């Protein structure tokens, strides 16, 4: 399939999945671009386990960075952005092999799929761990008194 058609389908899938989940409209463009970046990396690395890991890491890092800069939750961007690289076809093929009682192929494809899913999860976990202790300055002038653990006590204002 033409790479431009695949990228366009990736963008549409990311956008419509975000809309299906009720994602705020102002976050859709960022989510689509993050999902597209992860999918292009996946295509460049030919769908190996390393590709799944690096896609998860890239998507996680970009989602964390965007969420911090926009002052929003990371999951708003992450859930829809990671959809294009999730190995759904491998899950489908595993079920088809199980239904056809072709257990050796089902085991092979199922194992490869689960390793890919694990690699994505590991990449996302590492991205979250990298940003766990990084503080970004607030983008607005108002302070979030209840959720800011590093706010000054009332007597120092």
Q: What are the salient characteristics of this protein?
A:
157 residues; mainly alpha; 0% strand
Summarize the structure in words:
The protein has 157 residues and is mainly alpha-helical. The chain has one domain (3-135). Helix content is 69%, strand content 0%. α2 packs across α4 and α3 (49-70) runs antiparallel to α4. The radius of gyration is 19 Å and the shape is globular. The chain starts with a helix and ends in a 26-residue tail after the last helix.
Q: N-to-C SSE series?
A: HHHHHH
Please state the CA-atom Rg, rounded to the nearest Å. 19 Å
Shape: globular
| Helix run count | 6
Count up the domains: 1
Largest sheet, described in full?
none
Task: Indicate the mean pLDDT.
Answer: 87
Helix share, percent: 55-70%
* pLDDT < 50 stretches: none
Structural class label: mainly alpha
Beta-strand content estimate: under 5%
What's the β-strand tally? 0
Distance between the termini: 61 Å
Structural topology:
Layout: H1 3-20, H2 25-44, H3 49-70, H4 74-81, H5 88-99, H6 103-131
Helix pairs in contact: 1-2, 1-4, 2-3, 2-4, 3-4, 3-6, 5-6
Short synopsis of the structure:
With 157 residues, the chain is an all-alpha fold.
